[in-house]
Amino acid sequence: MKILRIFLFIIFFYSFSISASPIKVVNQLENTEDELKVLDNTSVVYCSVKDLARVLSTTIYENIEREKLVLYLGEHRVKISAGTSFLVIDDIVYQIPSPAIIVEGDIYLPTTALFQILHDTVLPTISYIVENNELVIIPTEYNVQSIQVDEKVNGTIVRVKTLKKFKKREISVFLHKNGWFYLTIQGAVADSNNILKTDTRGIVKKISMDQLEGSLQLAFFLRSDIERHEFYQNKKTKEIVITLWAPLSKSVARIKEVKSQWEIDTIVLDAGHGGKDPGTVGKYGTKEKTVVLDVVKRIGRLLTKNTNMNVVYTRDEDVFIPLWQRTKMANENNGKIFISVHANGNRNRKAHGFETYLLRPGKTQDAIDIAAEENAAIKYEESRNGKYEELTHEGLILATMAQSMFMKESESLAGQIQHELNKELKSPNRGVKQAGFYVLIGASMPNVLLEVGFLTNPDEEKKLRTAEYRQKIANAVYRAIIEFKKSREFVMAEG
Fold it and tell me: Does residue 256 form part of some domain?
């Protein structure tokens, strides 16, 4: 075989007396010019594969021993072997009119045939003008920009973003038994960089593309079988939307899995303070830790009696629990709602009413003061070991960003609690507010902090001392949880 290659090289190198000029490379995309090295003394123009890789700014793999080169163009591989009349592009064989020649570790190919094959398969942006001995790289007018893959409980939706409205007859789809789903679009040219960066999920495991002459073929490798598929082109957005329906049995399994993740089946109730930390103490000696523990137990009893939900207490007796452990307990028990219950205090003895807080930077001085008062519980912790960073504005923003996916639901829960308390109590509704509470940081679920009233207001303290008033609070919070659960599960069912 090696003798044959030497023989072919001698024939091509010495039998002709053509002195070939380098190929001029005009890159209209970057507005530059270059030259591509060619062989002298050959009957047809042969160009250097290594130099072509340099001109195209692409990667090349060399196997000198086996006299092979592999040119990487995007996700495509062009395999070239010395002494053969074939190119292999992504496992498809293409014939060239003359065999490849190896000279000093570089392989040369017949230029016209090479560029025509590359243009028709993986590089539609190049064009070789024979009469000018010129290779032109043109900017491509892409009309297919990107792909978005969305996983749903009953299948996967693929959105192909296009810049033009294609006619129905120009679009075709085909599901092959080998597990690939093909979308072919006549007259389409794709931005391969964007396409190949697509995040895959759901049924779609892998995406590849082939820029063919006059058409684009997108291929989607599927993780599993599909029951059926549909597609249409959105008139407004121009995107081609493909729906891949999962088999019914798998859809049911997926729905159950999603429901198990998002169904509200565990409520974590946190009674503030406790043990050596009494919290706010009223004029008549009423301790915050006692009031809120009683309210939390009343809420828990209602939930246990009337629902199938699991109730988790961060404390169910008069003990001290560090703030950081409370959300840790909620996360470890796979809680779906976290409600921390407190009673307020204020230097202004006339301040009264109920309010619910979200974890965000405080907007008012009152909110900042209340958070500071509740956060002061950390002074009772024997060893903090850096668990609490000072809640500067920047630090609190970072903490809220980490929990941002639950913020809308937390707002909804807080609003529902205020609404139900407003119906039950004659005390002022002070609304939904925001402040930086340590006890809410790290909760991987909708979370709020409820202030049921002001122990520093003598009249409100008297109310909070009574079992009847505490039961009213518990009734309202219980109803808020039930309504929140209904609304969330309705959205989940619709989605």
Answer: no
pLDDT in tens, 334-356: 889 999 999 999 989 999 999 99
Q: Which domain CATH number covers 203?
A: 2.60.40.3500
Residues of the domain holding 222: 144-251
- Res 56: pLDDT: 86
Kindly tell me the burial class for residue 39, based on how many C-beta atoms sit within 10 Å of its own C-beta (0-12, 13-18, 19 or more).
buried
Tell whether 236 and 105 lie within a shared domain. no
Backbone angles phi, psi at 154, to 5 degrees: -115, 20
Contact 156, 149 (CB under 8 A): yes
The CA-atom distances, in angstroms, between 204 and each of 26, 190, 199, 367, 468 are: 39, 19, 9, 48, 57
Interatomic CA distance for residues 174 and 23, integer angstroms: 41
Look at residue 359 and tell me if it is in a domain: yes
Residues 6+ apart with CB under 8 A from 79: 68, 69, 70, 87, 88, 89
| pLDDT for the residue numbered 189 | 86
Q: How far apart are CA 161 and CA 239, in angstroms?
A: 4
- Provide the terminal-to-terminal Cα distance of the chain, rounded to the nearest Å: 65
What's the pLDDT score for residue 120?
78
Q: Tell me: the pLDDT tens digits for 151-184?
A: 877 789 999 998 788 888 999 999 998 899 999 9
Residue 340 pLDDT: 93
Nearest alpha carbon to residue 85 among 25, 24, 44: 44
Distance CA 390, CA 93 (A): 65
d(CA 276, CA 495) in angstroms, rounded, equals 47
Cβ-contact 266, 310 below 8 angstroms: yes
Q: Which of the four pLDDT bands, split at 50, 70 and 90, describes residue 370?
A: very low
Q: Is residue 147 scored above 90 in pLDDT?
A: yes
What CATH number is associated with residue 121? 3.30.457.10
